[in-house]
């Protein structure tokens, strides 16, 4: 079984380099264009099941990717982006430059990150993502050929890190542009990464924060 794990299209907060987390920010016009172009490139693929984060930016991306297909779209809160608590809406670049910022380690030394101010830990996000895969995706093996999942940059990296045994030190080396697919396989109950960060449009955008 193949799994196409997508990151959502661009939002205004992506373009402005602001932390989104659980904030429910919709796609912008360019983000919709990316999703439409991506959908065109996927026209020859059949999806048997589809899942999305309930946040607007992921759900709308999934709707666009599934346009014209008779595939019901299910949401699961475990696919929501990592939560950044009090820091949501803030700029990416400030915590990178300030060692005292609550998210400095998140960006610069993820292996040392300890959440503050209502933020979520890598372990917590990874645990809920893995629970989703075990409970909703694993049982589909043998019954489905291809499954679509649309979620978020940090959450998808958490899943890929777990599946590929990628240490947190290399978390941000995983490039995931907006509307990029990471293609996984599921065989004999084991997930495997076939390809990461594949884009179906021109120049990749927002690959790293």
Characterize this entry briefly:
With 209 residues, the chain is of the alpha/beta class. The protein has a single domain, classed as Rossmann fold.
Task: Walk me through what this model shows.
- The protein has helices at about 10-15, 30-40, 55-65, 95, 105-110, 120-135, 155-165, and strands spanning about 1-5, 50, 75, 145-150, 180-185, 190-200.
- About 40% of the residues are buried.
- Helix 2 runs parallel beside helix 3 (about 55-65) and helix 6 packs across helix 7.
- The chain has about 210 residues and is α/β, with parallel strands linked by helices.
- It starts with a strand and ends in an 11-residue tail after the last strand.
- About 30% of the residues lie in helices and about 15% in strands.
- The mean pLDDT is about 100.
- It has a six-stranded mixed sheet, sandwiched between helices.
- The protein contains seven helices and six strands.
- It has a single domain (about 1-200), classed as Phosphoglycerate mutase-like (Rossmann fold, 3-Layer(aba) Sandwich), CATH 3.40.50.1240.
Keywords:
6 strands, Rossmann fold, 6-stranded mixed sheet, alpha/beta, single chain, 209 residues, 7 helices, 31% helix
